[in-house]
UniProtKB/TrEMBL annotation:
Belongs to the methyl-accepting chemotaxis (MCP) protein family. The chain crosses the membrane at residues 6-31, 180-203. GO terms for cellular component: membrane. The keyword Secreted does not apply. This is Methyl-accepting chemotaxis protein McpA. It comes from Clostridium ragsdalei P11. Keywords: Membrane, Transducer, Transmembrane, Transmembrane helix. One of its GO terms (molecular function) is transmembrane signaling receptor activity. GO terms for biological process: chemotaxis; signal transduction. It comes from the Bacteria. The keyword 4Fe-4S does not apply. Residues 276-540 form the Methyl-accepting transducer domain. It holds the Pfam family MCPsignal.
Length: 564
């Protein structure tokens, strides 16, 4: 028998015991009430019997000590008539021999005792000699049968107790009924216990079978198998439990299917985020390399401009020496012509180098702007991840609530639901961290674009300056060519060249300062590019962790077998 059957058996035994106890108590009360009525009847009969006894005749019979007297016969006849009228079994008069023994004086019973036959006095008989009417509290038995006896004193004219009268109500039938009722009660108890045991055994067997089916299904559900319904037709609470279990299984199965779909979508988004972060990391590295090259070229440009400034200082000195040494003008003119041509070639190369550098800076600015667009796309994806995390968290909360309703059977699922909710919260936190990093990267990218625009302006100014230098060089060359035909023209040209020398030097100083600023900005851009690369690596790591978390969630959810 199952534990539930044992509990039901105990309950039935308690109920049967209570019913039997109530029945026995009720029967006892009824029997006690019947006994009380018998005692009342006996007391009433003995009270009335005192009035029919002639005390004087009794006193004379006691004195005569004879049962052959007229008085004896008259008293006996009156007693027989009263006995018949009251339906009394035994009716007798007795006297006291000593404190323990009584003697029958007159006996009107069907089976009378002998005249002055000794009889051991009992409680009620003794009380009668004390002057009070007494009734036995319990039936008594002797050789004449089982009776409920009542006793009353017989007093003489002076009030002295000279004898006592006794009346016995026959209660043998009542006692037999009591015994029969007792045996029937025992039999009823035995039958009730047997019927209860059989009923409990049959009910327990059927209940154990039905509960066994439900328990088997719950075990399958605790192991992750949510397929198939429980089918029972008991038309009671067991069937209601079955329907509730089937509804719970269907709801949990639907929840898990939804979780699978959302986790699958999150998995795809995580893959995309991981790929984009990888590309962003590579782009950041390329930007860093380009910026380093720009910085190196800027330093070289500054070096060349400083060198050109020194050359033009030397050129000015030579123009002054040429003014003083007009006689050596021809030789010096030729040297200046050659050097001017060479300087013109260098300036053209410088213009080309600055133009190429400007193009590269524009390309870097365009890539940085493209990087900002990619960062905005990544931000959109992380917002999508936040939404998915919120939905996953809500689903996990609903799954936990449904698992708590299942009680013990849903504890395992409740743990899984809590893990899913924790993973969803972690995903949301990681996504928020990614958003924060992306905001920093976007701000830094905006700053880089602004700096590159400033650099582009500087490059444009520098190109203008260098073009001015090239124009000046062409003027100088023309002047030198014109200088050769005539000293006056040479002197005039040298004066103009001396004037132009100061402008050129100022422009070179401006170009040198701009080149230094470009070099400093390039270093700043390089530092920002390194930070961008570091941020891209952090985004990649976060995306990789997010992908790992999504894979774990997917693996845990796939442990459950659901009806697709």
């Amino acid at each position: 028998m199952s534990k539930l059957g044992v509990k039901i058996l105990r309950l039935v035994c308690v109920v049967v015991g209570a019913i039997v106890a109530i029945s026995l108590i009720s029967s006892t009360i009824v029997l006690k009430r019947a006994e009380s009525q018998l005692r009342d009847k006996a007391k009433q009969s003995i009270t009335e019997s005192v009035s029919i006894i002639d005390k004087n005749k009794i006193e004379k019979i006691i004195k005569d000590r004879s049962n052959n007297s007229k008085e004896y016969g008259e008293v006996l006849n009156s007693m027989i008539v009263f006995k018949a009228k009251k339906d009394i079994k035994n009716f007798y008069v007795y006297i006291k021999k000593d404190n323990k023994t009584a003697q029958f004086l007159i006996d009107a019973s069907p089976d009378p005792a002998g005249y002055l036959e000794n009889y051991e006095m009992q409680g009620g008989m003794i009380s009668a000699f004390d002057g009070s009417i007494a009734v036995d509290s319990e039936p008594s038995s002797d050789k004449w049968g089982t009776y409920m006896s009542a006793y009353a004193p017989i007093k003489n004219s002076s009030g002295q107790v000279i004898a006592a009268i006794g009346a016995d109500e026959d209660v043998s039938t009542f006692e037999n009924i009591k015994k029969l009722f007792f045996y029937l009660s025992i039999l009823q108890v035995i039958i009730a216990v047997i019927i209860s045991l059989i009923s409990v055994w049959l009910f327990s067997k059927k209940l154990k079978y039905n509960i066994g089916i439900i328990e088997s299904k719950l075990v399958d559900m605790s192991e992750g198998n949510l397929q198939g319904n429980v089918e029972l037709k008991t038309k009671d609470e067991i069937e209601q439990i079955m329907h509730s279990l089937n509804d719970f299984r269907l709801k949990v199965s639907n929840i898990l299917i939804n979780i699978k779909e959302h986790v699958s979508n999150a998995h795809g988004s995580s893959d995309d985020l991981y790929s984009i972060s990888k590309e962003m990391s590579l782009s950041a590295e390329n930007v860093s390399l380009i910026i380093h090259k720009v910085s190196e070229n800027s330093e070289k440009q500054a070096y060349h401009i400083v060198s050109m400034e020194e050359v033009f200082d030397e050129f000015g000195k030579r123009i002054e020496n040429a003014t003083k040494m007009i006689n050596e003008f021809s030789v010096m003119g030729n040297n200046i012509s050659e050097k001017s041509k060479k300087s013109s070639t260098d300036v053209n190369l410088l213009i080309k180098s600055i133009t190429d550098l400007n193009v590269q800076f524009k390309s870097v600015a365009e890539k940085i702007q493209g990087l900002g667009a990619n960062i905005d796309k990544i931000s959109d994806i992380t917002n999508l991840i936040n939404d998915i995390s919120d939905q996953t968290n809500l689903l996990a909360l609903n799954a936990s609530i449904e698992a708590s309703r299942a009680g013990e059977a849903g504890k395992g699922f409740s743990v899984v639901a809590d893990e899913i909710r924790i993973l969803a919260e972690q995903s949301k936190i990681s996504s928020e961290n990614i958003n924060e990093l992306l905001k920093n990267v976007s701000n830094q990218s905006t700053a880089v674009v602004a700096d590159t625009k400033n650099v582009d302006c500087q490059f444009s100014n520098q190109i203008g300056i260098v073009n001015n230098i090239a124009s000046s060089f062409r003027v100088i060359i023309d002047d030198i060519e014109k200088l050769l035909p005539g000293i006056n023209l040479v002197n005039k040209s040298m004066i103009e060249a001396d004037n132009n020398k100061s402008i050129i030097i100022n422009n070179l100083e401006t170009s040198s300062s701009s080149a230094k600023e470009i070099s400093t900005s390039s270093k700043d851009i390089a530092a920002i590019a390194e930070e961008l690369s570091s941020s891209a690596e952090e985004v990649t790591n976060s995306a990789e962790k997010l992908l790992y978390v999504v894979n774990n969630v997917m693996e845990n959810v796939n442990k459950f077998k659901t009806e697709e």
